[in-house]
Structure formats: structure tokens, C-alpha cells
Amino acid sequence: MSVAPVIELEGLTKRYPGAPADALHDVSLTVDAGQIFGFLGPNGAGKTTTISMLVNLMQPTSGNIKLFGQDNRQFGLEHRARIGYLAGDMALDKALTGWQQLEYFGNLRGSFDKTYVRELAKRLDSNLGKKIKTLSRGNRQKIGLIAALMHKPDLLILDEPTSGLDPLIQAEFNKIILEHQQAGKTTFMSSHVLSEVQELCDQLAIIRDGKVVTHESLKDIIAAAPRIVRLTPKGQTKLTQVVKKLAGVNNVTYHDHTLSFSFAGDINELLAVLAKQPLANVTIQNAELEDIFMSFYSGGETHDA
To answer: What is the Cβ-side half-sphere exposure of residue 83, based on CA atoms within 13 angstroms?
Structure first.
């Protein structure tokens, strides 16, 4: 018996009244149980609109959304209790302490695990005894994260979860999300912190102008991207001319005795050519997610140096 995806978006489209174009156009994607799914795109690409429709705060113009195999518009309290949600513009009651706010959320849900809340607060270095109005942006963000996590949901939906957090807390957040995955649970997260996405996510969609431009495993996206090659020749050579003859070579530069270029061709062909050249040093590395993201953002154009 097959298990339904945790998230299914089919032909999802959203057009705001008076807008010249769709905010979201014909978006289809699936997220399976146990995945950490990254949802990337520049500001205004449609990420928050998608998330708002996922949690039923906004209705699509057309298309369907299923969570756990069921239309999200038909969700009752039992199904909603399986979801933890952190909005990018979360609203908290500034007159309450962090603990009071979380207790209020827990009572609305019908359960409040004080021990687990204290554990999360300790790990995220959150002082829940302070009034929310006295807290910095990062410390308010910690309360939002605890609120999303404290009932151990089957699905986490997070919009910019580490906004305002310092690097140590970001690292602890990453550990919590990986533990969540190890428990068989699912995370759907939008983030501008590309290093975080590269460390956590196993599946990735990039959205641009309301349309999904890629939806693959992160491993496959990185494997398909051009590698970065750096060569240090030994003595006088014609290395630059040799390299430029190879298919898939772009962005060739020579600086400080090092020849650098991007390579999207056959790695075996490259290695065979380099084996015949006098070289002092060779480094070949996969592209960083930031470079891949920018290639999609700019339309995938490349330019020779």
C-alpha cells in the first residue's frame, strides 16, 4: 500500500485583484514523508503566498492542495494539530511573557508539554520569563520556533525560520530539524540562508516570478551544476589555450599563477587532458548552492571571462 505524499500541490495559481500577472502560476510539486524540503526564491517570487495557501490562510485562484492526502480546505482540528507553522511575519502578544504566549498556544491546541518546552527553550537559549515587548527580533523568533515545534508535529512549515538568529543558535536549530527528520517527520522551509538549505535539505524547489524553475533532489542539482576548477601550472605552459578548447568550459580567468574556470563537460575528458599538463596543484569542487541559485535567478546565463 503506497503512502500519500505529505504535501501535494497541483496546478496551484494565485492572482490578486488588479495585479498584472499571477503571483503564483501553475505550481505543482510533492513532498514525501521524512523529507526536509527547501523552497527558495528571491523576494516577491511567491514563496510566502504558497505557504499562506498551504496553511489555508489564503485560497488559491485555481489548483489543489493536499496535506497528508486530504484537501487542506477540509481539514479539521485533528489534522491541523499535525502541523507546526512559523510565519515570516509572526504576531505575538507583546503584553505576555514568552512562557505565557506558549502556554496560551498550547491550551488552544489542547496540550502543553512543559518539559519539552523547557528543553527547546534551553537549546535555543530563550528566556521565556521576559515580556515579549522587551525582546529583540531574534529572541521573538525563538519563541515562534518553539511554538511551531513544541507539539512535535508531523509537518513543519517554516517561513524564514532563522531570521535574526545568531550563528550558534542557527546551528542548534539545524540539529533540531535533523532530529525531527530522524523521527520520520517532514519539514517544508523557505529560507534566504543558502548555507543552511545546503546543509539541511534533501529536496529543493526554486521559484522565480511565481513559477517553479527547478524541483529536484539537492544532490542532483549540485551534481548537474558546473564544477569550479583551479589549476596552478608548473613553469611556462599553454594551459589556458588547452583548457579553452574543452567543451563545457566557461568563465576562464588567470590570477596569481592560478587558472580558474567553470566546467560543465565530461569530467573524465577534463582529467585526461590535465594528466598531460605540467601542474603544481589541481582543485575541483562542486558548485555552491548560492552560485546555482543565482544562475536560476539570472535566467541561467553564463559569460566567458
So the answer is: 22
For the chain of 305 residues, list the mean pLDDT of each consecutive stretch of 10.
Answer: 85 92 93 95 88 92 94 82 90 95 92 95 97 95 96 95 91 96 96 82 91 88 84 86 90 91 90 92 84 65 32
Cell of 92: 505575538
CATH numbers and ranges of domains, the chain: 7-222 (3.40.50.300), 226-285 (3.30.70.100)
Sign of CA dihedral 209, 144, 94, 138: negative
**pTM reported for the whole predicted model:** 0.81
Let me know if 41 is exposed, middle or buried by CB neighbors in 10 A (0-12, 13-18, 19+).
buried
Nearest to 22 by CA among 65, 54, 63, 69: 63
Q: How much is the CA Rg of the chain, to the nearest whole Å?
A: 23
Q: Interior CA angle at 252 toward 246 and 258, to 5°?
A: 110
Largest CA distance in the chain: 75
Of 278, 300, 280, the C-alpha closest to 291 is: 300
Phi and psi at 168, nearest 5°, equal -65, -40
